[in-house]
Design goal:
This protein has 251 residues and is an alpha/beta fold. The chain has a single domain, classed as Rossmann fold, CATH 3.40.50.150. Helix content is 27%, strand content 27%. The strands form three sheets. A seven-stranded mixed β-sheet has the order 3-2-1-4-5-11-10, with helices on both faces. The protein has a two-stranded antiparallel sheet with strand order 6-7. A two-stranded antiparallel ribbon has the order 8-9. β2, α4 and β3 form a beta-alpha-beta unit. α1 packs parallel to α4.
Length: 251
Amino acid sequence: MLAAWERLSPVYQAHHEFSTDDISYGPWAPLERDLQLLGDVTGRRVLELGCGGGQCCIAFARRGAIVTGVDFSTAQLAYARELAADENVSVRFMQARVEEMSALAPDSYDLVFSVNTFTYIAAAAACLAECCRLLAPRGRLVFALDHPLRQCFLDPGLSGLDDEWSIVPVRSYFDEGWHGWRWPGSNIVLQSYHRTIGQWVDLVVGAGLQLLRIVEPLPPADLLDDILPEDGAQAPLRLIPHTVIFMAQKG
């Protein structure tokens, strides 16, 4: 998996072109300025897990947070450090796996934040236990994922592992385990893990955290109109959630 991300990093960053102007919950979700989930982060100690190219870290720092970004990819972290330097923003970046971050002290963060990372983690329980360990009392965990329901409508293409949209379910929502898929237009194969909403709730509570909210935001209208236009064959996919955001608190 690490080797795949080292190769994918430049393609991934060029494809998404994430902005550093605001905090993102993923390509299918509104930005923080619209959702208003985090409140004032001035002076708060923020840890982003799976920080990738560092765009959200920079956005947090611009809002006055004290930010640490963690990723396991050398290529992604190199991109993040260069971007932060170019934008003259102070962020601490470190290389680690999110299931084991022993270099970080317990109770040392007010907010642990992550977007579209936890679905790549086989040992999700260990990852969430680390989140609980690192949070200060009353600190919050906020993580966003591709909604597990949308996985039911992604069908492996006949030509290989590239996922293609289907307007009817082609996978069971209840099928657990990993799913291999290829980044479009490349030979880079990634592996993600399917878990239901209920399983994520059990994992969060099992880690010793109190679940506060589950947010299922409507995708931005311009994105829907571009990718799933109302007069297109895949318009029914406008009717399902594409992102889920979990908000939890430590004790």
